[in-house]
Design a protein that fits this description.
- The chain is of the alpha+beta class and 104 residues long.
- Helices cover 29% and strands 22% of the residues.
- Strands 3-2-1-4 form a 4-stranded mixed beta sheet, with helices on both faces.
- Strand 2, helix 2 and strand 3 form a beta-alpha-beta unit.
- The radius of gyration is 13 Å and the shape is globular.
- The model has no long low-confidence stretch (mean pLDDT 90).
Length: 104
């Protein structure tokens, strides 16, 4: 079993994350997966969960968001919405996700 970490092993530029979130109508952005555990490695991707403003559908901008986050964080990003996560482990992911941005 792997342990949970309390601080991210990489720098998260929260001001730039907030700018990106506002631009793409993201109301909540969270980290989940190995970045929150002690099995995060130098070649690990970063799992990010986003929730969009009600009524907003990102369409192809979803890929732009993923690419911009990859550039900001210096790693490959695997971008998901709660609906993308398998129902078999969605509740666990949502419970363990570490919120990085919430729209005021």
């Amino acid at each position: 079993m792997t342990g949970v970490i309390t601080q991210s092993p990489i720098e998260i530029p929260k001001d730039k994350i907030a700018e990106l979130a506002e631009r793409y109508h993201i109301c909540k952005l969270s980290l989940f997966g190995s970045i929150l555990r002690d099995d995060f490695r130098s070649d690990s991707d970063i799992d990010i969960l986003v929730e969009f403003e009600p009524g907003y559908t990102p369409g192809f901008a979803f890929i732009d968001i993923q690419d911009e986050l990859s550039q900001l964080l210096g790693r490959v990003v695997d971008l998901n919405t709660p609906e993308d996560i398998s129902r078999y482990f969605r509740s666990q992911v949502l419970a363990e996700a570490q919120v990085q941005y919430v729209k005021n």
